[in-house]
Write a structure and sequence with these properties.
Elements (H helix, E strand, L loop, with lengths): L3 E4 L14 E8 L5 H15 L3 E8 L8 H9 L2 H14 L3 E4 L9 H7 L5 E5 L12 E2 L2 E2 L10 H6 L6 H17 L1 H4 L3 E4 L2 H9 L7 E3 L16 E5 L8 H8 L6 E5 L5 H10 L3 E3 L5 H10 L2 E4 L9 H9 L3 E4 L2 H6 L6 E4 L4 H13 L1 H18 L2 H22 L1
Length: about 400
């Protein structure tokens, strides 16, 4: 079975460097498009715009239904077709670096071995916590869970069925993790890991990855343009699910009483959101929207509500909010605690504190004099850390570090 889609590079435009690189970019797409897919595409576009020769090998999860559950589980540990595809890509393209966003489940860690056998440095971006947690989120029963961190075999994850709520399927993920922990794959075959935040880097070090080979490089977004926050509404954009904090947000909103909450997105809790919008004059659910419409809404929102209850990787929607100068209300948890500066670029509240979350939403709407200063600081945060030019600088320094390590290790 062929799970691989080889994407040929488009012509490069502008920003040509004196020494363009050849980059083989690997990504395993998701059945339902998510932030990792967008981050991969943005990185490839940026590299090509700067004159680098980028070839992609895309593994498409939409084809995974063709396999039996057992075959899919074993394939996540080692997939010969992926090894052959990447080996062939290296032979024909002769890249300077293998840049991997997501390898699970169709690419598999076999792709690292293909690169290592040809002395090609491997840069693996850690968008989620898959190497430490079978569910990839450190989230269970409505709260953060780190029971599997530091375990060679993630037995608690199997017991709780943390991957797709199935012990059997979770055992397949656990087999992949245990096998490559035993083989030392993460230490010997990956040249450099990229964590998106200091928080994530700390968790990966606690989980056993080599601290001297984990750098922090946040994702970036293109400049969305500064907004004025002229609309009298709070905005939520994202998946409608428990881990994203939708039930908590709806309960907190009942105490707000003023203004409007606009919800954009889709997901398993769509019915709950529709019911709340029908019963409450202050809640408007408009479903999934085109990117241009989301930008317009983001620009005019007085604040972005981000009630997520899991650690997150690096939420692109928060960075997009900062690009507009829109402050963010979030839980003091995981990546959010490292992204939002309390009372400067938004508000941080204790996870699950609905009354506190409601108070922050009220402040966002009823204290416009504070909002002006926050909008300026949110925009400054974006310009200093998350715009495309800063992202490119960090990307180049990441590759330079990987080349140096590859030479040292031989």
């Amino acid at each position: 079975m062929n799970f691989v889609r080889l994407a040929t590079p488009r012509s490069c435009q502008g920003g040509i460097r004196d020494t363009p690189m050849r980059i083989l970019a690997i990504h395993n797409t998701y059945q339902h498009r998510g932030g990792e897919d967008g981050a991969h595409e943005a990185k490839v576009r940026l590299l090509r715009s700067k004159g680098h020769d980028v070839r992609e090998i895309i593994f498409d999860n939409k084809t995974i239904g063709r396999e039996s559950t057992i075959a899919a589980g074993l394939g996540a540990t080692w997939r010969h077709s992926s090894f052959r595809a990447v080996s062939a890509g290296i032979e024909s393209f002769r890249p300077d670096v293998l840049d991997v966003d997501n390898f699970f489940p169709l690419a598999s860690p076999s792709i690292y071995y293909a690169a290592k056998s040809r002395s090609i440095p491997v840069v693996q971006t850690l968008h989620n916590f898959r190497l430490l947690c079978p569910g990839a989120t450190f989230f269970r029963n409505g709260a953060a869970c780190e029971e599997c961190i530091g375990r060679s075999v993630p037995l608690p994850g199997i017991l709780h069925g943390c991957y797709r709520k199935s012990r059997f399927q979770t055992a397949g993920v656990a087999l992949m993790l245990a096998s490559h922990n035993l083989l030392g794959t993460w230490h010997s075959k990956v040249t450099l890991f990229v964590a998106l935040t200091d928080f994530a880097r700390d968790r990966f070090i606690r989980g056993g990855l080599p601290s001297d080979r984990i750098v922090v490089r946040p994702n970036f977004v293109t400049d969305q343009g500064v907004g004025e926050g002229a609309g009298n509404y709070i905005l939520y954009v994202g998946r409608l699910s428990v881990e994203k904090g939708i039930p908590m947000l709806l309960r907190a909103w009942r105490a707000v009483k003023t203004g409007k909450l606009i919800i954009v997105g889709e997901g398993p809790l769509e019915g709950m959101v529709r019911d709340e919008a029908r019963l409450s004059q202050g809640v408007s659910y408009i479903g999934r929207q085109p990117a241009a419409k989301v930008r317009e809404l983001m620009s005019n929102a007085v604040a972005l509500a981000f009630p997520s209850l899991w650690y997150e990787g690096l939420p692109g929607v928060m960075i997009e909010a900062f690009s507009h100068g829109t402050p963010v209300v979030a839980n003091r948890l995981g990546a959010m605690e490292h992204l939002v500066r309390h009372t400067q670029t938004g508000w941080l509240v204790e996870p699950g504190a609905e009354a506190e979350f409601a108070a922050a939403l009220i402040n966002a709407q009823e204290r416009p004099q504070d909002n002006v200063g926050m909008r300026a600081q949110a925009r400054a945060e974006f310009e200093s850390k998350y715009n495309a030019e800063r992202g490119y600088e960090l990307l180049m320094s990441t590759y330079a570090r990987a080349f140096a390590l590859n030479e040292q290790r031989g």
